[in-house]
Specification:
The chain has helices at residues 3-10, 12-62, 70-92, 98-143. It is mainly α.
Length: 144
């Protein structure tokens, strides 16, 4: 029994339906396979692009170049040398305040001596004033 005999017995309407169903199924299968292959191609191309990017990142990490080695070290050494030169220059500069400070200290010493002398004079005046007050009170007491 062949396909032709099955189609003859089924009749033209049923045979047409079966043929159309088979053709539709085949077409749907072909379209599904085509969509799957194009989606897979897009997905695999994205995966390939990501792998290439990752490979490039790993290569850049493996060979960093002058950014992390001698170039950075040279820049740091230059900066440290400049800072040390500035420090040496500051240390070798003559002091600017010592002469003015010595002169000010002399003036302050003179003022300090004057204050001590005036304190002694004030104590002497207070002592003499107390002695004078005592004499005046003694004189007033004798007068009565």
């Amino acid at each position: 029994m062949g396909i032709a005999s099955v189609l003859d017995r089924a009749g033209p309407a049923l045979a047409t339906g079966i043929v159309l169903a088979l053709l539709t199924g085949a077409a749907s299968t072909v379209v599904a396979w085509r969509d799957l292959s194009s989606a897979s191609a897009v997905r695999f191309s994205n995966i390939t692009a990501e792998l290439e990017r990752l490979r490039a990142d790993l290569e850049a990490f493996r060979s960093p170049g002058g950014r992390f080695t001698t170039h950075d070290g040279d820049r740091h050494w230059q900066r440290m040398d400049a800072i040390e030169a500035r420090i040496r220059e500051q240390e070798m500069r003559p002091p600017r305040l010592n002469t003015a400070l010595d002169q000010h200290e002399k003036e302050c010493q003179h003022i300090h001596d004057m204050v001590i002398r005036h304190e002694q004079q004030i104590k002497h005046i207070e002592t003499e004033q107390d002695r004078l007050c005592a004499r005046l009170q003694a004189c007033q007491g004798n007068r009565r």
